[in-house]
Amino acid sequence: MKRLIQTQIQSDSQKLETATDVKFQNIIYYYWDGKKTVKQNQQVGIDFLGAVSEMEKLDHTFEKNFIGFQNCSTGEYVQLVRLGYGSWYADVPIKDRGNWEGYLWAGYGNTKTITDMLKLFFEEVSWFDSISWKMRRCTQ
Known about the structure:
By secondary structure, the chain is an alpha+beta fold. It has three helices and eight strands. It has helices at residues 2-21, 48-57, 111-123, and strands at 27-32, 37-38, 44-45, 66-71, 77-82, 87-96, 99-110, 134-137. Strands 1, 2, 3, 4, 5, 6, 7 and 8 form an eight-stranded antiparallel beta sheet that branches. The chain is globular, with a radius of gyration of 19 Å. The model is unreliable at 17-22 (pLDDT under 50).
């Protein structure tokens, strides 16, 4: 009888460990494709599967399309523009203590590369080295 109880306790402990490995993602998104708008200040939460779904809907024929993701826990951002059916432009604003002075990291990738990078972003693991970046400055 003692062995059965010990096995049950181990099983419950493993279930608890598995449950605590799930991390709450505090990620919001913003979006514009000429038809649909989600503003950053609306604070609309999203998970990775939702992000991929929204990316698929992004109309690349609308020149000013974009989708952006903000991790409210880490302060990281990544913003995407769909250039064509399978090609993307990505940028990451470079902020100094929360202030943005127009500098960003810019890069390009195909859908698989960008989706793989975004998966790492959502998992809150090292994602920045997924594509090549160049520093740029936006002028207003």
